C-alpha cells in the first residue's frame, strides 16, 4: 500500500482550481471558491445536484491531491450507529471471556475492562474519520445522505457539531483535527435546515458544452476529436428534452469510451440506436429517442458542427 504524504491545503482560490485541474477534475470558479472556503474555515461542504454530475468525485480528487485518506460512508435506508460509527466484536469478546473463565479469571471488573477495550472495537467510517492526526486529517465523504432517514440525520448533526463520539465503555473520542467533510445528496428528499447551516453549500449542475468537452478529452483522451464534440453536443441537447432521467457526466464519459472501443470516429443513427443503453437507463426514455427524437437531435448536431467549421 502506497504511503500517503499529506500536503497543505491550497492558499488561494486559483491554487484550489489548479489542484482540481491537476487531478483532471474540470471545475468552474464557483466550485473552487466554495471548496477553498470550506478548507480554510474547516466547515463541511454540502454538495447537492443530480446523480452523475461529479459530486462524489470531488471528494476522491481532494483526497488524492492533498495526500489524505478517503473515508467513505455510503448512506442507505436503515443505516444505523452500529454500521456507521462503531460496534463491538462480540464473537471475539465471547472467545476471550471463555478463555479467561477457563484460566480461572473470574474477577468481573477486570474482565469487563479487558473485553471492552479498543482491541475489540470495530471502527466504522464515522469513528474512523475522527482518528486523523494533526496535519493529516482524512477526507470524510458522506455520500447520498438523502437515502438515510431523519433520525440518522439528527445523529450526524451532533457529530458535525463537536467532531466527537461517546463510546459508553471507553468514554469520549474526539478528533485531534476535524476531518475534511464532504456531504453529497441527489435531492430525493429535503435535508433539514439545521444540518445545512453547519455546512457551506454548493449546487453542482451539469457542465456547459465547453467544460463537458474538456472533461471528455481528459477522461477519454484516445477518443476522436470529432466524435467527442458530437457526443457532448448530442448529450447537451438530450438534457433539454423531457426524460425520466437525463444522462449525467458519468454517462457522457461512458458513452465516449464505449464508442471509442467500437472504433467510431463520428455518430450515425445506427450507432446511436445500438449504444443508447449506455446513456439512458429507462425504457420509456429509450423508446422516445428511437422513435425519431434521436435522429432529429443528431441532424441538429451535425448541422451545427459543420456550420462552425
Automatic annotation (TrEMBL):
Coiled coil: none annotated. GO terms for molecular function: ATP binding; ATP hydrolysis activity. Gene3D superfamilies: P-loop containing nucleotide triphosphate hydrolases. Residues 44-199 form the ATPase dynein-related AAA domain. It holds the Pfam family AAA_5. This is MoxR family ATPase. It comes from Mesorhizobium ciceri.
